[in-house]
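step 3/5: co-fold with succinic acid
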Amino acid sequence: MERTDHVVIGSGIAGLSYALKAARHARVTVLTKRDRQEANTRYAQGGIAAVWHPADSLDAHEEDTFVAGAGLCDAEAVRITVAEGPDRVRELIELGVEFSRNEEGEYDLGMEGGHSGRRILHAGDITGSEIQRALVSAASNHPNITIHDHLLAVNLITRSSVAGQPVDDDRAIGVYALEEATGIVHRFLGQVVVLATGGFGKVYLYTSNPDVATGDGHAMALRAGARMGNMEFVQFHPTCLYHPHAKSFLISEALRGEGGRLRRADGTAFMQQYHPLKDLAPRDIVARAIDKELKESGDDSVFLDMTHLDRPFVEERFPNIHARCLQLGIDMVEQPIPVVPAAHYACGGVVVDEHGCSSIPGLYAIGEVTCTGLHGANRLASNSLLEACVYAHRAAAHAKTFIEDNDEPEEPATAWNSQNARNPEELVMVTHNWEEIRRLMWNYVGIVRSTKRLIRARARIDLVIQEIHQYYWDFTITRDLIELRNIALVAKCIIESALLRRESRGLHYTLDYPETNEALRKPTILTRADLGL
Ligand code: FAD
Ligand code: SIN
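step 4/5: write tokens
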């Protein structure tokens, strides 16, 4: 058992930004389920949106965020994020993040869909890896921060979970975490617990996300009784590379910001048929347009044409995408890139207030695992790295006060009751159910939905959850089993949220209610009781 002040789960931009702030006053323990570098953050390409250029304005960034969010953004969350964003970006620069500059030595500002002007700071097309490098280096060298790699958080420890029943003074006091190499489940107790576990792209068959994105934080929070918001709003990125060996490699929206055009196999451009902003329309519109084109043509992909740009510019601005495409035999300067949509970003998550506080005292949530209200029904491109920094800063400040104002919890959280038996059937069950969930979510709860498909998805996920439940409690837990249990619960939560939204808005499009209904303009909130847990 380890006692610390702040237990942070996750080592992406949210977790490490928080850790660096909290460590100024206290001890911080960071748990991360793979190597500390591994996170969605590392794969971010386009950049981080912030009002930087003198010709830009906070009002314009707010307005673009509201338009993308399709009427569901929380005005205060938008105001906070946009206003505090530039200071947080300056802190990243002070930490050593090297954003790209133009020939005059000024920061080069990129353009992406839904933005009314250039406001995206980037490091070529590997912005996330540059940010992650700087954060990991600073956190790894900080005397007050201990990072445990390869420790998978399994369940939150709360006063209610210790008591075995809901208690009035519930509070998060720690987490159980599996050390994969030994199979030992450790207890980490803290004065506050911070979920910074990122998204859940792996719930879907095709995703831009790395393997760590299994919605563990969403699932842990749900099981602990936290309120979840807007889980139906799953963002599909319109352009992931279509290639058997590419594993949904992202083709950044910044390419369309530099004039890229989406074309059918016969070379005709089509986005002018769908939106006045054409290829730079909000993501939900572009993804749905591609989905429709593919269904109508029966083709495997559409194509992103960048051949109007010259080679030196492409190699300088998009070195990673250019190199990856070349490796796969696609020279993007000479030929259009085959692309398809894939699950990309979770707009919904643990409901938090303006300080990152969840509905459970002592439990903070920051980054992609949250629903701050910033994104509403659809996230504006490059607003998520920004949101993670802004809320990490606010949560760290609030947690300091929380710790000063509250006694250290003294509950003797019980040790994990490990089962020793391994079941030879487990691997088959895990592989089969993992595949089934991801396929059913793609087919029935994807870009275009219907009530019939959602009800069918619900019936199947309920059966899968029952089967997993039996294995989970009877046998030794493994990473595969824990992640499977989590994606199943997250899938259930997405399906139930989607069924509750009887309109089409932003990322949620259903054939049964194709119009937006202003009377239904409010967030979807669920708790474990709504899911029958
Ligand atoms: P993450 O960076 O995903 O970090 C989560 C951490 O939690 C990881 O370390 C993970 O290992 C750990 N973890 C998860 N579960 C557990 C567990 N059970 N136990 C222990 N540790 C756990 N956004 C932008 O704003 N601009 C972009 O240009 C951009 N491009 C993107 C490109 C790609 C390909 C992808 C996938 C996303 C992109 N996004 C972009 C979205 C953005 O990268 C993420 O929203 C953001 O990085 C999330 O940060 P985070 O810290 O919340 O989560
Ligand atoms: C991209 O580069 O297209 C991703 C940007 C984002 O998801 O915000």
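step 5/5: annotate
The radius of gyration is 22 Å.
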